[in-house]
Structure formats: C-alpha cells, structure tokens
Please model this.
Amino acid sequence: MDVGKQDTVTGRITTGHEWNGIEELETPIPRVVFLFLGAAFVFALICWVLYPTWPLIWTYSKGLLGFDQRATVTRQVEQAAADRSVWTTQVMDKSYTEIEADPALMHLVTETGRTLFIDKCAACHGVNATGGTGFPDLAAKAWLWGGEPETIEETIRIGINSTNADTRTSQMLAFGRDGMLQSGQIADVVAYVRSLSGLAPAEGDAARIEAGKQVFADNCTACHGEDAKGNKDVGAPDLTDANWLYGSDVQAVFTTVYSGRQGHMPNWGAKLPPLDIKILTLYVHSLKKVAP
Amino acid sequence: MPEFFHRKIERNAIGFVLAIVGVASIGGFVEIAPLFTIHQTVEDAPDMRLYTPLELAGRNIYIREGCYACHSQMIRTLRDEVERYGPYSLAVESKYDHPMLWGSKRTGPDLARIGDKYSDAWHVRHMINPRDVVPESIMPRYGWLARNELRVDDLGEHLAAQRDVGVPYTQAMVDNATRDAYGQATPDSDAAAGVSERYGAATQVRAFDGDPSRVTEMDALVAYLQILGRLTEAPYKQQSTAAGE
Model:
C-alpha cells in the first residue's frame, strides 16, 4: 500500500487504499466548486446585512435596507389607488346621474367594473351577468329589490339574507313542507301562476286555474300583490313577467311553492370599499340585455 | 489548498463525522432560529376563534379529497393577489391549522378568503357540478358529498387530538363534539343552541347543504369553506394600520 503512488494509466496519485489489487485514485473536489461555494457564502453574508435575517435576543436583525414585504405591498396598493384618483375621486364625489351623463368617465367605470364583476360576481351571476337558475339575470333588469342605482348599491352593500346586520331579508315560505297547503292546492296555484305569464298550461292544468286563483288570493297576495306584480320592498318577484329565477316548468314552480326559496346575496360591504361598490353599481346598471 | 484539505479530512473518520454533523446542523439552526422571535413574527389575534367540530370535519374532507393540491390558502404580499383576493394572509390565521393547508400550487383560485364570498347554495351546486355555475371550470365533480352521511361519532377524538397539539378546545367542546356537529347543520334542533354557546355567537348555524333533515359531508365542507378567512378580523385591521403608517 503505497501512499501517493502515481497511477500509471491516469497519471493521478492514489489514496493508498487497495482492494483485491484495485487501488483508489485520489479525486479531490474540483476547485471551481469551491469557488462557487465561496461566492455563495459571500452572497449570503451580504444578504444577512441587507435583509431581515438573524434572531437576536429580543428581536431579529432588520437589515440595512429596511425591507418589509408587507409595507411594500401596502405602498404599491396605495400608489395604484393614487394613480387612479384622477377619475376615482370624480366617481366618489359625483351622483349617479352625473356620472352616467359623462361618457368618458363611464367608459373608465365600465372597464374597471367589468374586471371587478368577473372577480367578485361572475361565479354566481355569470360572466355576462345573465345569471342562471337560482342566480338572478342582472341584464334582464327584472329587479327584485328595485333597479335604481341607489337600490342596487344598497343590495351589494348589505346583501340579501346575508351576514350583514342590516341585510335585506326575504323568504318564500315552504307552503307544502310546513303544511300550509295541500298538494292539490299547490298544483292549483302552480297552474294559476303559470297562466299569469301566459305559459302554455300543462296537461290537466286548465281545470285547476280557477281553483288556483282562490288559493293565490288567500295565501300569496300579501307579498306578491293582488295583481301578482310583486313587491320590491320585500323582494317578492313579479309573477306575470317572463323571468323565472328558479325555473318556469311545473315541477320547478311546484318545488318553489312546496319547499320555499331563500336566495342569498353575500355581504359585500364587508369585503369591498365604497368605491368598488359604486363602480360595480354603475357597471350593473349599465348592463344591457344582449341577444343570445 | 483543496487537495490537502480533502486528503486530511477523509483520512480522519471522527473529524469527518464531526464536520458532517457541524454542516448539517446549520440547516437545522436556520429552521429553528426563527422560532426564537416567534412573538415578533406571529401577530396577536385575541378574537381568533376555533374551528367547530363540523368545520373540522369539513377540513378533514378537504384534506381527504386533496383540495389542497389545486387550491392554495395563502394570499401573498403581492399587489395583484391583495387586489383580487383581499388582505394578505397572516401567520396567526393558521394558528389552529394542524396540518396547515397553505398549498403550493394554484390550478384553481386561492381559497384563503372564500368564506362568505358565495352563498351556500352556490357551493352546493358547484360541488355537484362545477360547470353548472362556472362553465369554463375544470374542477372535478364532488357530487357524492351531498349523498354521504357525515361521520360524526368520532369527532370528539379529532378535537382531542387537536387539543394535544395545542388547540385550546375545552373538555365541554370535546365531550359535545358529535352533538355540536349535528346542531350546527340543523338550526331548528335543540342541539343548535349549544354550538353558539360554546363557539361564540358569530358561529354560522344553518343547513349548509340546504337540507336540514340530515347532516352530510356537503354540510361539513361548505361550513368549512364559509369560515375560511373569517376566524379573525386581524388581517383587515393589519391592512388598515399598515395603510395609516
């Protein structure tokens, strides 16, 4: 076992280890690795000094740069708000009528409004605000609570049946499940209600309409009104128009009367600043029904 | 010179072992050291509330179904995230998360502030078939959650396990876990009152899946999703104080 013996093939020296005649070459870590390792250490040392790093006894080293991700992002958000303030202060200061009369401002509002709408509202109301079963079509303008900008703003801010203390509250009672009406009576009133908006009667419905009218007069007029035009104070829908939030087929209307309905609009006042709510209101108010 | 250093260290077994231990412990130290000043890096949130048994069961379903593989629960300190999702996540918000579900990849959106963003009915429809409410969604369906009865008999043990790792559940909470899980999803039952009593008046007690007659896995998961980001007001306060500086 010769330490440092020169290997004849590679010209390298050996470590002196030998197993069954096989000797191990001495292969040190290449210098370049040490070089990069050293450079990495130097880099780390510089970072230790510049950025928050080490725990001290009561606090941690804050670094010479005073770097703080939270402060940075807060500053960026504030900067962005300041950059937009050219027109956002106008939005906050002006009335809805004034803003809507200003096409240049409305252009900015609807551009921002669309992004906000897609982020916050589109999951339920759809990208084009056309809603779906259980989620109102905002473009159709069949407003349950009123379609004035002020009313829309209120609905966004406090929600419907939401966690807000001042929430709008509305409930379609479960006339069947809670035993207020018998199945036959429900079928009657369903036939009557469907006839109000001119839907083609289902088989056997024609005979029920007359009886249904009486059931309606006894049970439904308190909220939906004697003319069935609804009541925006309690969010009761107009039953004579062509908009059916939960479906217009016999089964869907039957389920509505039997089990009741209670929609839910979240409490956006807790999540969105007043400016965003105003922009969304203007956006929603500006929506037009597009032909399918 | 590297050659000499390497020859020396490799010929000294004890020295080499000590050197390995020394270098490896740097890694350990770097992980442990931040805990020395944890009182400075984790915020205080006196209003931080606990997960109810039903929410904890929902959290377990969230883990079971692998939701964390596609959804993160961590809003980073970046402007686009703050503007889209809400105030950035604070460490204290994960105080009672064992294990934490921050996630590392977003195939779907971040869920850290999903609570109270959509209605229960939306969540139920979305779980049964995401395409029903979001046509472009690629999320799988989880319809069975609405059919599966929730297993509630062992929830006391889940609470006890969480208590063992530092979540301050009281003995009364552990003892009543099954009853509270049932009560939170059945607002008209006698068990409902105990939930608000033990977990605070702000606890949401309602039939999350829309059917008060039975407690399903859907009830649990929706209850959990609706509480995400609402365990404490601290992130909102933090943001407004940071803005005031």
User: Anything to note?
Assistant: The longest strand of chain A covers residues 14-19. The beta strands of chain A are 14-19, 22-25. The interface with chain B takes residues 15, 26, 28-29, 31, 34, 54-56, 58-60, 69-74, 76-78, 80, 119-120, 123-124, 132, 134-135, 162-163, 263-267, 270-271 of chain A (CB under 8 Å).
